Amino acid sequence: MxxxxxxxxxxxxxxxxxxxxxxxxxxxxxxxxxxxxxAQHRQMLDQVLEFFEIVPDYDLNLMRPxxxxxxxxxxxxxxxxxxxxxxxxxxxxxHGDTTTSTATAIAAYYARTKIVxxxxxxxxxxxxxxxxxxxxxxxxxxxxxxxxxPTTRAKENLVSERIPAEDIYITGNTVIDALLYSVEKxxxxxxxxxxxxxxxxxxxxxxxxxxxxxxxxxxxxxxxxCDALKEIALKFPKIRIIYPVHLNPNVQEPVYTLxxxxxxxxxxxxxxxxxxxxxxxxxKLIITDSGGVQEEAPSLGKPVLVMRxxxxxxxxxxxxxxxxxxxxxxxxxxxxxxxMTDSLKYNQMAECINPYGDGLASKRILELFRNL
Length: 372
Ligand code: UD1
Ligand code: UDP
Known about the structure:
Layout: E1 2-8, H1 11-25, E2 31-37, H2 43-51, E3 58-59, H3 69-87, E4 91-95, H4 99-110, E5 114-118, H5 133-143, E6 146-149, H6 152-160, E7 168-170, H7 174-188, H8 193-202, E8 206-211, H9 220-235, E9 239-244, H10 249-259, E10 265-268, H11 273-282, E11 285-288, H12 291-299, E12 304-306, H13 314-319, E13 322-324, H14 329-341, H15 343-350, H16 361-370
Parallel strand pairs: 1-2, 1-4, 2-3, 4-5, 5-6, 6-7, 8-9, 8-11, 9-10, 11-12, 12-13
Helix pairs in contact: 1-2, 1-7, 1-16, 3-4, 4-5, 7-11, 9-10, 9-14
The chain binds uridine-diphosphate-N-acetylglucosamine and uridine-5'-diphosphate.
Uridine-diphosphate-N-acetylglucosamine (UD1) binds near residues 64 and 66.
């Protein structure tokens, strides 16, 4: 019996780890699976756990209002230490590039426990973009024993860093597993409060969906983003902008200060995952700095404008469904104007391609561990 500990703390990690947990849990005679949440996020994590019906075995409850990188790192290392001592797993699974993942990898390495990195090998090679995620994933990569890469490109990055190729497996991205599960579940939901609320807000309008939370955009970046959204709202009064605002106070403050009270901008609280999936399907266009949304939207045939200078997810940019627009106000407004007025260009971007997976990533991960 292999003892697996899956550790995560934020909304995107929970969404992307959920399908992996569900797969392993189907085989209790082969795997002793325990889930540990650091709760680096609280509300935004809990809604995902509830949707996927995951009950953590360990809940470290670490989130503090306006927390900082130092305190999250220290708290995760110290708290995960206790879990490792109690459960003594064979493998610790971490995901992606959050501070929860890197601090957990450090704790697991100190305990000489094997580390499995889900979504391994994404890189910009720019230390401060995204910050601190680029260094988080590089550091986690150095400590990892088994690398689960979503794409060939991600594997190539690791090989170029002298990670042995035999330790790297291309699995596809588990976010597509989560997305397909959710799309199907959303279609069966008849009475969901958030989706009902969205239907009312949307009416028959064309919708632009927005998300944003990156640390490198705090300050001037968010001010320029809000200025751009304001200009788009004035230029296209018949279009509705729906913006579920991330709970980070560094996002809430500028967004509510600069955008509240504009008729065709709806600022709402972060949506639960099924409602956000509904919104992605319903909208015409997405503007975001999110990593996960860049992967999901192409699967739903939605053009994405990414408010970042660089991306670790070049596959969709090369395929043409994602454009990088940074946080330059004019660039954002011009790109939106093109997509809203030029149906040929819109259709070229909306062509449905799916470079990130086929929905079977978690099954591949399961099979890999059955055979280890
Ligand atoms: C974190 C991750 C980032 C990931 C993002 C996903 C790090 C350093 N950052 O950034 O990689 O892309 O999550 O969203 O690991 N808050 C709440 N309730 C919640 C969640 C957050 O109130 O459910 C507020 C709290 O005041 C918290 C703050 O947001 O202190 C910041 O949370 P934190 O996890 O430090 O940073 P994020 O920007 O969410
Ligand atoms: N998401 C959500 N509700 C929202 C906004 C986003 O459930 O209101 C989902 C989205 O579908 C994606 C994930 O959250 O799967 C992305 O999280 P986030 O942008 O916070 O983090 P990142 O992916 O950038 O690390």
